[in-house]
Amino acid sequence: MNKPIIMIVDDNLTNLKIAKNALSDIYKVFTAVSAAVMFERLEGKQPSLILLDIDMPDMNGYDAIKILKSKPETKDIPVIFLTAKTDSDSEIEGLDLGAIDYIVKPFIPLLLRKRIELHLTLESQRQMLITQVTDLQSAILKTIVDLVESRDDISGGHVERTQFGVGILIFELWKSGIYREELESWDIELVLRSSRLHDVGKISISDSLLLKPGKLTNEEFESVKKHTIFGEQIIDTIMEETAESDFLKYARIFAGTHQEKWDGSGYPNGLRGLEIPLQGRLMAIADVYDNLTSERPYKEASTHEAAVRIIGEGKGTHFEPVLVDLFTKSSEQFRKIKGQRDFEFIKFFAELQEN
Question: What is d(CA 48, CA 355) in angstroms, rounded to the nearest whole number?
């Protein structure tokens, strides 16, 4: 069984030695004499917990934890401060910055072990609870998505395919460095999961409109267009009854903005250019591609080549030009996912990265 990794950061070599001796029979221990060394040694490692001294030269523990909590790859690592400070103000400051505990030096080795054991047990239980909640969210999400798809998607799979389409475009953006700062601020997994709710507002649209075999009248089309507003309202209602959720915030953006157009001629708000959130601009392409290449009650499915041509013609009007270029570049990936069911999400993106 692999031992949990503990990272100890202290400029005092005696403290490092005492802490390492107290813990190394239970844990895999890495030490660092400064925050700079800690960041170097964190590359490629994911400690179960960091013991971080506060008073260190060059960078103190308070500044170090701010950096840890600002990075997606380290923000969830539990941090316990080690310090000779005994005043309550210092302890409160440390806890406010995200530390889970505060151990005063000189520490007693046995007590140090017990405190770490307690926090790792609590962290394990927290992760288990998160997994259970995530599984529940996934089950509820799948039920809602299946309900939406059953309304007007004959072949099924539209929600999954658009999720993958958005993922392909995000991957291309990341490789190109475009919008890198914005993408780094996202929880990509949540963004992709939340994209599955982009059409949730169709629950409020009547079957007579969604399943109409012929062309909609202007009045009927105006009614269908309201699915974007209904989607926002449905998600707003959920948000009122639950804790603040990035997942729901992302979902609301997808639901409310995926029908906006780059030139301002879209709906529901006639947003133009960069006024449209990036999620909406990405979904606009993924959604249109899948709708074009899918059979609907009112039309035959277009070929992949025709869909690529139509999206290309919408460059600068319907769609953001840079995203159309990335779509064209990656259009064969869209062809691959078309017609598939039961996607293997992780495998698919692993193959993308290899290519």
Answer: 33
CATH number at residue 177: 1.10.3210.10
The tokens describing 196, both together, are: 């599955």
Same-domain pairing of 189 and 327: yes
Say if CB 292 and CB 310 are below 8 A apart. Answer: yes
CATH number, domain of 115, equals 3.40.50.2300
Tell me how many domains the chain contains.
2
Which amino acid type is present at position 348? F
Over residues 16-70, the pLDDT tens digits come to: 999 999 999 999 999 999 999 999 999 878 899 999 999 898 899 999 999 999 8
Contact 232, 255 (CB under 8 A): yes
Using CA atoms, how far apart are residues 136 and 138, in angstroms rounded to an integer? 5
Q: Provide the residue range defining the domain that includes 30.
A: 5-125
Q: How many CA atoms lie less than 13 Å away from 183 in the CB half-sphere?
A: 16
Lowest mean pLDDT among 74-83, 291-300, 314-323: 291-300
Within-domain flag for 147:
no
Which of 86, 106, 125 corresponds to the end of one domain?
Answer: 125
User: How far, in Å, CA of 218 to CA of 252, rounded?
Assistant: 26
Among residues 109, 125, 141, which one ends one of the domains?
125
pTM to 2 decimals? 0.65
Instruction: Using alpha carbons, select from 298, 337, 3 the residue that is nearest to residue 171.
Output: 337
State the DSSP code for 202.
Answer: G
Rounded Cα distance between 3 and 333, Å, is 40
Task: Name the strand (E) or helix (H) holding 98.
Answer: none
